[in-house]
C-alpha cells in the first residue's frame, strides 16, 4: 500500500468518526431538551405538592424553594455532572410550582437563586454561570405564567448578589458581570433589576 493510499484511508476514518460524533451530539442535544422538560415538570409538581401538604403557603414557599435547589445540587454532585444544565430547569420548576399554589413567586425566585449560588460555591462550581442559569430559569417561568418579569428578575438577582456577598467580593463582581443583559431581547431588565452599587458620599461643601 502506498503512502497516498494510507493517507486516504486515514481521511476516511476521520470522516466517519466525525460523522459519528456529529450524530451523537445531535441526539444528545435533542435528549437534553427532553431532560430539561422532565426536570421542570418534576420540580414543579414536587414544590406544589409539598407546599399544599404543608398548608401554609406563605411560610413554606421560601423553605421549599431553598430545599429543592439544595437537593438538585446534591444530586449533581453525586453523579459528578449536570449542575449547569439542571440549574435553570430547577429554578424554572420552583417558580412554576409556587405559582400553581398561589405563593410568593418573587420570594421563591430570590430564595432559589440564593441557594443555587451558595450551593455552587460549596461544590466549587462557577458561581457566576450558575447564578445566570438560575436567574434565567426564574425569568422564563415568570414569562410563562404572565408574572411581572422585572420584579422577578429583581428578586432573583438580589438573591444572587446577596449570596455572592457572603462568598467574597470577587464573587459579587463575577455575578454582577454575568447577570448584565440577563434577559435576551429585553435590554433594560438587567440594569433595572440589579441592585445599585453604593456610591461614596459626596465631598461637596456649602
Explain what this protein looks like in three dimensions.
This protein has helices at residues 3-54, 57-79, 83-100, 105-122, 127-145, 149-167, 169-179, 189-193. By secondary structure, it is mainly α. The chain has one domain (11-193). The longest helix has 52 residues, at 3-54.
Features:
206 residues; mainly alpha; globular; disordered C terminus
Distance from N terminus to C terminus (CA atoms, Å) equals: 93 Å
Tell me the major beta sheet. Answer: none
Binned strand content = under 5%
* Mean of residue pLDDT values: 77
Oligomer: single chain
| Structural class by SSE content | mainly alpha
How many distinct beta strands?
0
Q: What Rg do the Cα atoms give?
A: 22 Å
Helix content: over 70%
Count of discrete structural domains:
1
Uncertain parts: 183-193, 198-206
